[in-house]
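Aim 2 progress. For DMT family transporter, the working sequence is reproduced below.
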Amino acid sequence: MALVSATSFGVMISMARLTYEAGSNSLTVVFLRALVPSLLIAGIMVLRRQSFALQPGAFWPVAGVVLGQLGIALGYLSAVAFIPVSLAAMIFYAYPLVVALAVVLLGRSGIAWPKVLAFVTAFAGLGLALAPSYAVLNPWGLALAACATLSGALLFISAERLPAAQGFLSVGFYANAVAVLVAGLAIFALDAFALPQGAVGWTTLTAICLSFLVAFFSMIGAIRFAGALRAALIFNLEPLVAIFGAVVLLGERLDTTQTTGVILVLAALMAATLAERREKAAAAP
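Predicted structure tokens for this construct:
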């Protein structure tokens, strides 16, 4: 599930670029990306006669998921208005490290040194793969990117605390409904609603909406079944998928530094997996 989610989120970046080139903009994409899933989820819940009420103990975890998802969208999109996209991406993708630290500090789980090394190595690899530009270090942009990072960690930690009885559909509905409200108000205030033109623009916009639905539920499922720590480690693949998506869909090319970064991330994930298998083998009777 983590792999499916990371892949879906990563591919969306290149598809968003194609949608923008067809005449749309980021606020419109965020609005429709949330509107379509919220309507689909609401329709499914009504047909199944499923209650929109939350389970006991689910309010604060759901609120954390909602705020985390909203903070990622607004913080990340706003940051790129002040600092280079590559720098904003590198700061944002530090959230797996923040998740690992938060899990340990909250006493939810211990973390062995091999996993610590894997997280640090993966982040270093992302730094090379994304090749950020430090030419512009606007404090507002840095603060907004950091907000997106903390929001990502909040989402993961909150999703892990969801009660087992809490269904995914209502969580998805509330997360997307709040995003629709906030993005809709921003579009109204700025008069920024812009639909894409042409078949390519509409195809990529439709793909973004459906991919986001798959990505969100896969992410929640991955955190529930694998835990925030494991899922966060796998989500280091998301920017790599975004890079390969840009190569395939946008015709961009990887240089030597970026290729080295990609190899470092993959090596870190493989090392963490092997270390976990050794831990299980050693603990087995």
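The two ends are 29 Å apart (CA to CA). This observation will guide construct design in the next reporting period.
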